[in-house]
Amino acid sequence: MAGGSTLACVAPPNSTLLDGQLPLSKQPFNVPRSTTNDPAQLSATNFRIDACRKVTPSEYDFIARGSYEPTMTDTDTSKLTSSAQIFSPNNTLPQIRAIHKSLHVAIEEKSTRLRTQVGSSYRDLLGTADTIVHMRDDNDVVQELLGKMGGRCGRAVIGSKATGLANFVKKENKSAASIAARLRLLDACVLVVGRILKGGGGLGDNVKRGDRLVLSTKVLVLSRLLIKSLSDDAADLSSRRAIEAARTSVSKLRRRLLRNVEKVFERAGNETEREDVQKALCAYSLATSSGARDVLRHFLHVRGEAMGLAFEVEDHNRKRSAEDVVQSLKLYSRTLLDVQALVPGRLSLALSGLKSHPLLADPSLKQLEGLRLDIYERWCDEEIQYFTPFVRHDDLDGSQARDMLSAWSEKGSEVLLDGLKKTLDTMSEFKLIMELRTSVLELWIRDGGKARGIDPSEMQDSLREAINSRMLAVLDTKVSKLRLVGSELSSALGRWKDGITDEHVSIWDDEGYDAALAGGAAPFVQEVVSRLYGRNDAVSKAAHSYKSWYHVIDDVKEVVEQLRRQRWDNDYDEIEDEETIEARQKLLSKDDPQMLQERLDTTLDKSFKELEDHIQNLWNERAESSRNGKVAMYFLRVMRDIRHQLPERPSIKKFGLTIVPSLHEKVAVAVSRPALEEFSAQGISQRVVVGRPLWDGEPPLPNQPSPEIFQFLRSLSLSMSDEGVDLWTKAAVSVLKKHLSEQLCEMWQAVLLENSSEEQVAPKQKDAEEEKSKEEEAKEDNDDEDTDEEDAEKADENKSDADEPAKVEDPVEENQKPSLSAEQKADIFTQWLFDVALLRRCIGNTEEASSSPFQSLEDKFHQHSKLEDAAAKQRISKSADDFWQRTSLLFGLLA
């Protein structure tokens, strides 16, 4: 045995084995020779069973547990070529038996397979034979039938039949019934075409306009065929008349059809209406027998004329509007998109579909109940029945269509831009131009980017340039209208009338308030404010002119802000990249507003400079006139209202400030002239100190001003109030005080010079003057109780004297005046010292008070007053300050 194994039959330890008996599994197996009797140490590799010996109990249990399985050699029977290979010493008996069994199984399988294949082939052979028999029978039948047909298709037989059929058809077509039927069909065609074009014809509401045009065109073609056929066949007069009437109606219907086609072409619909445009193109081609090229040429021609007609304003009742531009731009953009979408592919297919079958075989015609083709069709001759429309659908390729569209787009853009400029020329409001800009650019951004082969930025830049040019022109025109304010000033000065043009109504005057209150609170408040700020009729006109002009700046600011806030994204088709969107956003929402703002700033600077120069020239012409004070007040009020609402520009902040000091100076001179003349006539020439008895202290010093000074301040304050409290700004009061200081100091300086000359000329009269002074003092002591009455009489006298023109005294009269004693002069200078201290407090309290001329004048009066110590001067100064604090509210404008 191979492998050191022996063939054994395993049996239980107490069983008896017979020859050839295989207990348990009855399968031969190799059992290794056992080397131990310990069941725990048995394994498949350490024991062996000799041939036909009894196994030990431990070996039997090992085999029974299934831990041992016999090993068999797998042999491929298909590789066995001889019996020697089967009975080779390498194969055991069980293996030989297994090979034998495998061979039997293989033989049986092959036998079964061969039997199955032979049976199938036999059945197929039987079916083939049966088919051959049937084919032979059919062949005999066909040969018999062909023989009969050949006998009936002789040349003479066919010729006679064709001649007879032709004669029969000719007689039938020319019969009265055939003519009558075709006339009825022709009338029905005319009626149906009219109804279809009107929207009826029994087609329902779901049929689109393009389908109606194509259907009516087919019926119209059928009408022309019927007219041609009847013209050849009809002979009687009534039929001829009916045919002529039908021909006239068909001609009218054809023109009407073409007008409807053009209306479809002129309509700038959306993409859903493109199908109607395609059907209208087919209808035009069928109605005029035009090819694809002619159809496209006509379509572009109609669209171009429609763009031009959108801007026509021959009718005087119609004005140009933004809708014209939008409509024309829609036509332009939709034409580009429609042509690129329809030509040449879809249009060629649609045109070829028109000739795919005969006209009378068209299902859409058969569905028209009004034609009754089920009855009248058989009465039509062959030319009508087999007529197929012929149109050229392949005479236009892509390159030709692009060339035609490119040439048309150039002309169309010129028409569009020209109409846009003409429409913009009629617009003078920023709001309208802004709305037009938004509509046009949004439409082009939405549709312009869809067109292939065309750069939308070119048209966008052209539209933007035209609109920006108009906006800048309108801006220049509106800003330059600031000159109207100067024109209003010139007009007011030209028609100036004293007491009317410069009339100033007091705020406390009751007249006019009742009429203002009748209109409500707003007119009343407006009346009060106008009076407070001195806005008479002349000033109000100039101020109103400026305020009306100032709305231009507000409008431009609003437009600039709107331009900056606008977004120019294509929300309809997100086909643009971020760079394109950002570039367009920068161009339209940053560059354009910035350009408009820069132009506004430049124009404002120029206009305000021209206005300032104009006002300066007007003032220079009238600065030396007799009414220069009133004119200066007018200019000040107008300049104040203008400066109250100036644009925020660095170069305009100082508008009119150069002319203001000159105006203030003339106003100060005009207002102070009456008070100065009155004081010069009465206050300087005083010879008696009326308030001498009221002096107090040791030494006696004045504690109130002289009546002349008080009257001077009162007259000055009233004069300032009468001209208007609105004039007296800090700068104006400062100029007035400076002028008054100079004038008063000049007057008193003249008095000091006169006093010095008198002292040199008449020293001998000193004693007489002292005696006279003593007598006057005694007299004043007796009249202390009547001081108030004398003051009142003195005030009345001063008032009466103020109404009279000042008289100029000649040197002779001055020499004739009685001379004053030294004590009287000292009292006068002491009183004047108090008056100057008071004036320095109320008039000399300007920013230049340190260099006030009253200071030197006060020192000179102190010298002439014979006051020895400085304490008296300080007492006078303090008294003047106290008096001004008590009475300053009486002279509020000076305070």
From TrEMBL:
<dbReference type="GO" id="GO:0015031">
    <property type="term" value="P:protein transport"/>
</dbReference>
<protein>
    <recommendedName>
        <fullName>Conserved oligomeric Golgi complex subunit 1</fullName>
    </recommendedName>
</protein>
<comment type="similarity">
    <text>Belongs to the COG1 family.</text>
</comment>
<feature type="compositionally biased region" description="Basic and acidic residues">
    <location>
        <begin position="764"/>
        <end position="777"/>
    </location>
</feature>
<keyword id="KW-0813">Transport</keyword>
<feature type="region of interest" description="Disordered">
    <location>
        <begin position="756"/>
        <end position="821"/>
    </location>
</feature>
<dbReference type="GO" id="GO:0006891">
    <property type="term" value="P:intra-Golgi vesicle-mediated transport"/>
</dbReference>
<dbReference type="Pfam" id="PF08700">
    <property type="entry name" value="VPS51_Exo84_N"/>
</dbReference>
<dbReference type="InterPro" id="IPR033370">
    <property type="entry name" value="COG1"/>
</dbReference>
<feature type="compositionally biased region" description="Basic and acidic residues">
    <location>
        <begin position="795"/>
        <end position="816"/>
    </location>
</feature>
<dbReference type="GO" id="GO:0000139">
    <property type="term" value="C:Golgi membrane"/>
</dbReference>
<dbReference type="GO" id="GO:0017119">
    <property type="term" value="C:Golgi transport complex"/>
</dbReference>
<keyword id="KW-0653">Protein transport</keyword>
<keyword id="KW-0472">Membrane</keyword>
<keyword id="KW-0333">Golgi apparatus</keyword>
<feature type="compositionally biased region" description="Acidic residues">
    <location>
        <begin position="778"/>
        <end position="794"/>
    </location>
</feature>
